[in-house]
Structure formats: C-alpha cells, structure tokens
Amino acid sequence: MAFLKLAPMAEKVEVRKNIFDSETDISKFLALNLNSVSFNDWRKPFELELNDLLVANIGNLSIQTANITEKKLNRFLKLWMKGNHTFYRPKSIELSFRNEMNREEVFKGIKCEAVPDDEYWGILKRRDGKKLIILPAGNFILIKFQRT
Fold it and tell me: Does residue 142 sit within a domain?
C-alpha cells in the first residue's frame, strides 16, 4: 500500500524486498506511470510473465533478480517487432538473472543487426521505424527503446 501511495511522488523508486506473490501481482506495479523503478532482491527472484513486460509503463525499469524464461523474452521481442504497441513508454528495461541466459533462444527467429564496432549489442527494427537496442550478456539483459 505504501508503494502505491508514495511512488507517484518520487523521481526514482527502489524496492529491495520481493513482496510479490500470487495474491500481490507485480503487473499492477509495473503498469504505474513512473520515471524509474528498481526492484532488487537476490534471495527471492521476481517472477515475470510476458504480459508484465507488455504492460510496463515505467520509464527506466531494473529488476534484479528476474525470473522469466528465454522463450518469454523471445516472444516479447517478437511482439514488439510486430508493432502491436503503438505507444510503449519504457526507455530501458534491465533484467538480471541467477543463471546465464541462452542467447540463441532469446533471438530464435528474430533478425538482429549488429551494432557497428560492437559485437555484443544488437539492433531490432520495426516497420514503423522504431528501434530497440539490446545487450544480452550472460545473466544480464539490457533493452533500450529508441523513438523515431
């Protein structure tokens, strides 16, 4: 309750304990119109679903430690590529995982251009001109959304 009442007044919100469960869903917190939120709890990972990323309305979102499958991340990227969301507020999403992620599974069936002079960063482009720059590295993924 305190988070819901105080978060809209803050420039940056940090949550250092995972309070979410089946009754207290993280989705409604990710849908809040906030500038910057960091969820950080290495002992109890934050369970994420595909829809959680799709409804995110936070400018800069960081989740350490996130629990989401490579298949769901792949589906999220594919849905973003199709342009199903004409307005998508996040500027960046940063996720850390306990285990190393399978990069090939995340990009399966997705055409990803390499960033010039950087073998780790990739660029995804939509038909409407919007771009997503992504860095998948070990147990970490950073996604930056660029407006046209």
Answer: no
Report yes or no on 124 lying in a domain.
no
Give the pLDDT band (50/70/90) at residue 38: very high
Phi, psi of 8 (to 5 degrees): -60, -20
Task: Say how far apart CA 137 and CA 147 lie, in whole Å.
Answer: 24
pLDDT tens digits for 11-21? 788 889 998 87
Distance, CA of 119 to chain centre: 21
Residue appearing with tokens 């305190």 = 2
CB atoms within 10 A of CB 117: 6
**How many domains, in total, are found in the chain?**
1
Contact call for residues 39 and 63 (beta carbons, < 8 A): yes
DSSP 78: H
pLDDT digits (tens, 9 = 90+) for 87-127: 678 999 999 999 999 988 999 999 888 877 776 788 998 88
Rounded to whole angstroms, the Cα distance separating 32 from 70 reads: 25
Residue range of the domain that includes 45: 2-110
**11 in a structural domain:** yes
